[in-house]
Amino acid sequence: MSPNTRGALLMMGSMAAFTVNDAIVKLLGGSLPLFQIITLRGALTSVWVFLLARHLGALHLRFDHRDRVLVAMRCVSEIGATFFFLTALMNMPLANVTAVLQALPLTVTLGAALIFGEPVGWRRMLAIGIGFCGMLLIVRPGPDGFTTHAIFALLAVTCVTARDLITRRMSSHVPSMVVTLATALTVTGLGLVGSLTVSWVPLDLQSGLLVFGASVFVLIGYLCSVMVMRVGEVGFIAPFRYTSLVWALGLGWLIFGNWPDPVTMLGAGLVVATGLFTLFRERSRRRRG
What percent of the chain has pLDDT over 90? Predict the structure, then answer.
């Protein structure tokens, strides 16, 4: 199996694991408060990540102050992303929320151009504009279609974009597992603080198994996302990120009986097509460079 094939499979595995986790959390939302779910899932995930990082010998803080500040900023961005995304997920169809997140390659490219001055040609800028139009079709601004939960989905995209841009500025001395563990612990902290405002609900066997399953799928997603960065070409592997939308469509229909309407599907198609074009142009630019 070639490195690119392994990388593509790992990327698809990562997207599948994270989307299954999202579906489980959405299921749990019918019986447990959001902050209780975040706390329980985060605590279990933190334990899994800690044990794995310790096994890999990746638990060290031998990097400079600048990187530590960036790790802290990334954790803050992750807090916002988790809260806004899960709140939107509890109140919107799984496929719709996932489709909005497919705009990330576009928002990261735009953010890198505006903040870091990275060159972006007119073709990619046009693709970003079309992709944003597609995103508007998904969230449907207007008196009948635009809701607070759609705003939360867009805020989640903003927070994840900030997280990814911050990650770009980190040096290679920062172990990926340390960043992952810091993120898991910070999100767990969010859940604990938020739990002070709600009453916890006793877990039955089904809910307990679902929480356990969510933490396992998050760990699988983390593992695959770390391993995928070490094999193959990023330009070849990155487009397979969009397989998460396929999983979201299937799980949304199978578990929740939801299927997006034609306008939402059109918007999702525009976002995915322009995102793929942006990745293709980025790959071509790097090859020329």
Answer: 43
